[in-house]
Each structure stands twice: as C-alpha cells, then as structure tokens.
Amino acid sequence: MASFRDRVPSVQSNAASQQQQPIVQHDGPADTKQKTVQTQSKAATVTGVLQIHLQNSTKSSTVYAYITGQAINNNNALFLLRADAKTPYYPPNPPSTGTKLGANVSIPLGAPGNTITATIPQLAGGRIWFSIGAPLVFAVNPGPGLVEPSIFNPQDPNINTSFGFAEFTFNSAQLFVNISYVDFVGPPIALTLTDTSNTTQHVSGMPANGMQAVASGLVAQTQKDGRRWSSLIVNTSTASNSGQLLRILSPNSGILLNPTWFQPYWTDYVNQVYARYTTSPLTVNTQASFGNVTGEVGSQGNLNFGAGGLFPKPTAADIFGCSTGPFATGQNAETNTIIPRLAAAFNRSTLLATNNIPDGEQVSQYYTNATTNHYARIVHSANLDGKGYAFPYDDVVPDGGVPQEGALFSYSPALLTVAVGGNGAHAA
After folding, report:
1. Using CA atoms, how far apart are residues 251 and 376, in angstroms rounded to an integer?
2. pTM of the full predicted structure?
3. pLDDT digits over 342-388, tens only?
C-alpha cells in the first residue's frame, strides 16, 4: 500500500489520520484529488466495528494474517489484533528499540480454502498482512512505534519470508482499501467489499502464478533492452531453501538498495519531453480549484508553470519514486496538484503522445513508448482486472477515466473479504 512508510527502516509512525479527516492512502504523498476521499456525514457502520474475512487461497496450511493500525477511538494508539482475530492489543511504550511484542498477533488461517473472521475497530493507517510458510516478526520501538517487516534490511528477521499486505482506513464515515505493488510484488491478494445494501465491489489481484508471470516479463524485458528489470527479482537465499521466487522489487525499491540501477534509463526520454515543451505548452488538468494550467520549458531548462512552480529535469530515481527532485511536495498547493499528474505521465510515458495530461491520455497509450515503467506495465498485465498501485501516483486518471489503482471504498461497509494466494482468483 506498499508504501513510502516502508522505505525507511520499517518503523510505523505514531501519526495517524484523525477521525472525520480526509482518508489518504499510503502509496504516495497526499494529493488533493487522487487517493483522498473526503469524509461525509454518513456513518460507516452502526456498531463502529468491521468484520473481515481472511481467506487462505494458497496451497499451504502454514499461512498467517496480521492486522495493524492506529485506533481512532483510542487516541490513535498503536493497534494490533491478537491471534484470536477479535481482541485488540495495544503495545505499551517500551524502554528500548526492537522490544518484542507482549502478545501473540499471528492469526493462523488454517488449511487451504479456510476462512477466518476477524473483527476490528475503526483504524487509520491500517494494514492487513499475510505471510506464507512462517509467521512474521514484529517489534516495538519507544513511542510506541511498530517495527514492521522490511524488504530493505538484510538483517530483518522476515527477509526470507514470503509476505505482503493490503492497506486500508476505516473510520466513522467510510472504509477505503487497496492492494499495492508500489514497493514490491508478494503473494497475490484480492479484495471483495460488500456494503449494507448487499452491493459488492471486487479487486481481482493476481492468480496463483502471477508473481512468476511478472518475473518472466521482467526477464524478457531485460533481454530486449539490457536494463536492470530482471535484477528486481528476489529469490530465497537460506541454506535450506535457495533459489525459490520470494518477491519482486519495484524499480524505486531496487534503486533504494542499489542507487546506480537505472541511472541513465530515462535520460533520452526526458530530453525529448523537455525539447518538445520548449516550443509548445503542456496543459495539466490539476483536477482541483486551479483548473487547467500550462507550462513551457524556459531559458533555464525548467518546465515552468508560473505560480505552479518550476520543474527541472527528473532523474530515474525521481520518476520511479515520485517523491524527490521536481516531484517533492512542499508548501505550494498548486505545485502539489501538478506533481502527481506529471509524475504519472512520466511513468506511463505519455508526454510525447499528448500535450494534455491527464485528460488527453488513453489507457491504450500507457507504457507504449520503449522507455517506460515496464515494471508497472508488466504488473498491470499480471492482474486479472489490470488494477493495483504499480507506482505511487497510479491512481491519476482523466476525469471520468478508468481507474488503475485497485482501490475500493464504501460509506456503509458490511464485510471485507481479503484473500491471499491467488487460487480461485477471478475478475468481477
């Protein structure tokens, strides 16, 4: 979901969205239009709790689930659900970093096809985790702050465990939930949300062989262009289990671990884009009060949107990560509405196909340039419905356009079903 929150040593912040505040998902910096669903006066549930069906769709009987977040109605206290899937656990403030949890929070899902019913209170910054083959290890730092499993720390006790998560926020107004590949591809996860009027929404996720399909696609792309795509594939490396597909890193995660990867990848494309908009304007629909704004490349080589700010040429790390260089958000609200749309257009390589973003873009144009975010292209193709966050601003679409991000929300949720493993995965 996963998120920027995971990109520093895996410590969950104590800060959380307050009740009756906008819901902002974790896949990128807050954006006034995308990923933010304004709260309403409607109550999400009468009881203030939500039932979640945790479904084992793997072929393993050793599968665990975890639910974490901040308890909105308990002063945003750090929350984990105990192994019985119904009892809250609020870790006390520990005296030192890396303190072991004082409760069992591993929810066993049982045999393939089994479903466990979990009950949670209203939570902000929530995650539903799954692990296959072994339980996950969480710890607590002073705060308290949750030390989450990390794909970036080779010393993390979970580094050789297959795991993944969905992200959600459940407050007094609504439930918002999504699957994410922003940081990595792990076990397939699918979402089904039923509301109190029995209306159902569904995000399909990948089938059981989805991760292998992504790996094969990345290998094929490396054979085609010689870039580091296949290096994003991570296999197990323990003495007893070596060479099995474990997870697939996103390009921004690969760069965080290996800063030289993809360094020159976007250079030629970026130069072409800036050359084009030296002689013609680029129009960005901010999808906010600023409306349509136009920018051109000025004498200093920056894409100049006037009051919307200056955008120097981005690097590969800027484009894949969407949060650094010209895409770092700041105090200028207008700039902050341009950033997601410009970053998305770079990742999808549509800036040479249209001079009007995102409104001039078609899904059929995404990822068609030889230089593009091929990880995102391949990940979308591996999802049965094509949906899921493949980069932080993958929810940017034209007004009335086709969603790409794999998110669901309801003002009156009754039941959320989260399935892990991909067996029986289907498109709605």
Report:
1. 9
2. 0.90
3. 999 999 999 999 999 999 999 999 999 999 999 999 999 999 999 99
- Any idea which fold 4-209+403-420 has? Thaumatin (2.60.110)
DSSP bridge partners of 58: none
Query: Is the predicted pLDDT of residue 114 greater than 70, yes or no?
Result: yes
Which residues have a Cβ under 8 Å from the Cβ of 356 and sit 6 or more positions away? 282, 283, 285
The DSSP-derived string for 95-125 is: SSTTEEPSS---EE--STT-EEEEEEE-EEE
Phi, psi of 182 (to 5 degrees): -60, -40
End-to-end CA distance of the chain: 21
pLDDT tens readout for residues 127-160: 999 999 999 999 999 999 999 999 999 999 999 9
Domain-wise residue ranges, the chain: 4-209+403-420, 267-370
Output the six-digit token pair for 43.
């109550």
User: In this structure, which amino acid lies at residue 173?
Assistant: A
- Indicate the fold that domain 267-370 takes in CATH: Metal Transport, Frataxin; Chain A (3.30.920)
For 181-201, how does the pLDDT look when each residue is reduced to its tens digit (9 = 90+)? 999 999 999 999 999 999 999
Pull the structure tokens for residue 176.
Answer: 């918002």
Cis amide bond preceding 144, omega within 30: yes
Which residues contact residue 275 at a Cβ distance below 8 angstroms, ignoring those fewer than 6 apart?
297
pLDDT score at 241: 67
